[in-house]
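Suppose a colleague, Dr. K., hands you the sequence of a protein chain of 175 amino acids and asks what its three-dimensional shape might be. Before reaching for any lab equipment, you can write down a predicted structure in token form. Begin with the sequence itself:
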Amino acid sequence: MPKTKKTNSELIIDILRSGQTLKLSEITAMIYEISGKNVKMTDISSQLSRLSDENKKEIGFLIKRQKTEEGNYAYTLVKEALDMIPEEMYDLTRKTGKGRFTLADAIHKYPKIKKHVGESPVKAPRQAKKREEQPAAEANADRQMQYDDVDFKDMFKKLIEAGIKVDVNITVRFS
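The predicted structure, expressed as tokens, is then:
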């Protein structure tokens, strides 16, 4: 069943796909015109802040934020990204999803956007760390031996004398 209502993020992307440089107030007004949603400017500002931050959303590499003379921000989509289809751009706003179009996919399909992305924005997929097979009792015994061999009082004294701040959290478990 096709989705009919668009999220604010999707509406913002649709508006930026015009290629224009737009201020927050203009984007908010356009969202109201397109969707009929009475949205708050602070909500759209927050959404734009997240969307244009490449550390939070992959699409952030493709949305440029510039300060205007009035001290506000204006947003624009880089021209190299205008060739992308909307669904691909929507996927760049998501962190997960089966078959999601990623930034790596975008760079492969649209090589011109690479200049906006930088050297290595695409993180390598996480590799699951394999634990060594060791019985729990044996692992706990090894850990206990490590703690027994350390004179904590002496170690803390030396650290404090060296001017290093020491915070200690202790967890006690009874079995």
